[in-house]
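Hi R.,

Here's the chain you asked about this morning:
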Amino acid sequence: MTDSVATAFDQGLERYKQGESVNTLIPYFKDICDRAPKNATAWACLAWLYLLADKPDRALKAAQKSVKIDDRPPQARINLALAILDTGAKGVRPHIEAALQMMSLDQDIHQDIMENIEDGLSRKPDWKSLQRVKNWLLSPE
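And the predicted structure, written out as C-alpha cells:
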C-alpha cells in the first residue's frame, strides 16, 4: 500500500471511529480498494460498511475478495460469515471455525473481535446475524 493510500485508509478509519455516516464512508473505502486492489484489510472494511448499510450482496463480494487475498485475519472471516448469513447463502461454519481458532491463539485478537462486534451492535442494534455470530464465538459448542 502506498503512503497516500495508507494515509487515506487511516483517515477513513478515524472518520468511522468519529461516527461518520456509513453511506459517506462506503465510496471513500471503495476508492481505497480501487487504488489498492490487493489490500485485504481495505476490502474487509468495505465489507463491514456494506453490512452496516444493509447491502449484503455487495458485502459478500467485498468479504470474499478480502479472504481470497488473505484468509488469516479473523475479522475478514467474520465479515464473510455475516455476509453469508445476511444473503442466505451457505458455508458459514468454516469461517466461524477459522475465526475461533485464531481468536483462541491470541487474547488481543479475541478482544479486538469482541470490540468490533459490540461496535456493530451499537451501530445496528437489531443485527440478528451479528448477534448469532457473537453467540457462536462465545459458546462454540
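The helical segments are 3-17, 22-35, 40-52, 56-69, 74-87, 93-105, 107-123, 128-138.

Let me know if you need anything else.
M.
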